[in-house]
Specification:
Blueprint lengths: L2 E9 L3 H10 L10 E2 L3 E5 L6 H10 L4 E7 L9 H5 L5 H4 L7 E3 L2 E4 L9 H11 L5 E5 L12 E6 L4 E6 L2 E6 L10 H10 L5 E4 L6 H9 L4 E6 L2 H13 L6 E5 L2 H8 L6 E4 L9 H7 L5 E10 L4 H14 L4 E14 L2 E10 L1
Parallel strand pairs: 6-7, 11-12, 11-14, 12-13, 14-15
Antiparallel strand pairs: 1-3, 1-4, 2-3, 5-6, 7-8, 9-10, 15-17, 16-17
Helix pairs in contact: 6-7, 9-10
């Protein structure tokens, strides 16, 4: 039953930061659903925040306001992780359980705190019970590292495998999460960019992975050419399989190698649009994107990291400076937003920029 409650009202672009911070302060009413409209996010509160919590929020997000709003109640999950594990785990460990899992095909990926690791098998089985289509549960065993952006995993329940078939926006992808980077949290970005592409365009994906941008673009358009590049041989093998699987062989082309070398040798001045989803190092390849874009200009989708100390405006400035050093200019920023939280006070962000 919807009910009126105290809430935090914040501009949409700052919503993720406020949700994370308010959750850490323990003031979010998790029984009510967060609400959004075109420009604003409303975060339901247990009650009016104490002055010290409100001071922290105001310091981080000055535009944050206390108001009231009508919220629907959160839908109850039949088999929540906490509910399934309540009979076996101590209360203090229940509070440390992961709030969500990344679901890739029939594989669930979770992150366990050190105190939860000894209960990994029980947690894994509970994840499978709560998610009926999951056949394998993996626990993250390292950070994402290296040129190929890979991490180690431990199988804690189900079939001992890391390969699956993932479905997303009408496309299917063979994925081995231990051999090639893939994030289901970017599915909306894959779809958003594909919807922006116009018929007749040539698109270059500089860091294509298994092909979620390239395949979705090719499948959604009858007259496009997509060049998908990656330096990881395993990723390119899966990319080729996914191009065949989705029957876009005539529109999507997989290329193995260093993006800089391939653009300089084969694909200079051909692109209407360039995708740069390598947030750790994309800034080092802005000059490559500028070489790839047609002389008359084009659009670059640039992904990077932002934080409390390095906000989105700084990312725009660094990007613009890199473009200018490459002999081009940013005509305008068409779009920018935080895509997902990657660490406390850190987010992956995207800029859509028109380059001339």
């Amino acid at each position: 039953m919807p009910r009126e409650a105290a809430c935090l009202k914040v501009p949409k672009k700052q919503g993720q930061a406020v949700i994370v911070l308010a959750s850490k302060l323990g003031i979010v009413d998790e029984k009510l659903e967060i609400q959004r409209d075109e420009k604003t996010i409303y975060v339901p509160l247990l009650n009016k925040p104490p002055e010290d919590a409100l001071a922290v929020l105001k310091k981080k997000v000055p535009e944050c306001k206390i108001t009231t709003h009508v919220f629907p109640e959160m839908k109850k999950q039949q088999d929540s992780l906490v509910g399934l594990l309540a009979p076996t785990l101590p209360l203090h460990l229940l509070a440390s359980l992961p709030h969500s899992a990344d679901i890739v095909g029939d594989i669930a990926i979770i992150e366990l705190t050190p105190e939860l690791e000894q209960h990994g098998e029980a947690i894994g089985k509970a994840v499978m019970k709560a998610n009926k289509n999951v056949r394998t549960v993996l626990a993250k065993a390292s950070a994402v590292t290296g040129t190929y952006r890979l991490r180690d995993y431990t199988v804690i329940a189900g079939e001992p495998k890391t390969e699956t078939v993932h479905k997303e926006y009408g496309c299917r992808y063979y994925v081995d999460v231990a051999k090639a980077y893939y994030s289901p949290r970017l599915s909306n970005e894959h779809n958003r960019i594909a919807d922006l592409v116009k018929e007749g365009e040539t698109v270059i994906d500089l860091f294509a992975g298994v092909g979620p941008f390239a395949v979705r673009i090719a499948k959604g358009h009858s007259n496009v050419k997509v060049y998908a590049i990656d330096i990881n041989p395993d990723a390119v093998e899966y990319l080729k399989r996914n191009i065949r699987l989705n029957r876009v062989d005539e529109k999507a082309h997989a290329l193995l190698g260093d993006a800089r070398q391939i653009i300089n040798e084969k694909l200079g001045s051909v692109a209407d649009r360039v995708i740069m989803n390598l947030p750790e190092k994309a800034i080092e390849f802005v000059d490559v994107a500028c070489v790839a874009i047609k002389p008359q200009g084009g659009t670059v989708h640039f992904y990077g990291f932002v934080s409390d100390s390095e906000p989105l405006e700084n990312m725009k400035r660094h990007f613009s400076e890199s473009v200018e050093r490459s002999g081009r200019t940013v005509d305008s920023f068409l779009f920018s937003r935080l895509v997902r939280a990657t660490a406390p006070h850190e987010w992956q962000a995207v800029l859509d920029a028109r380059i001339k």
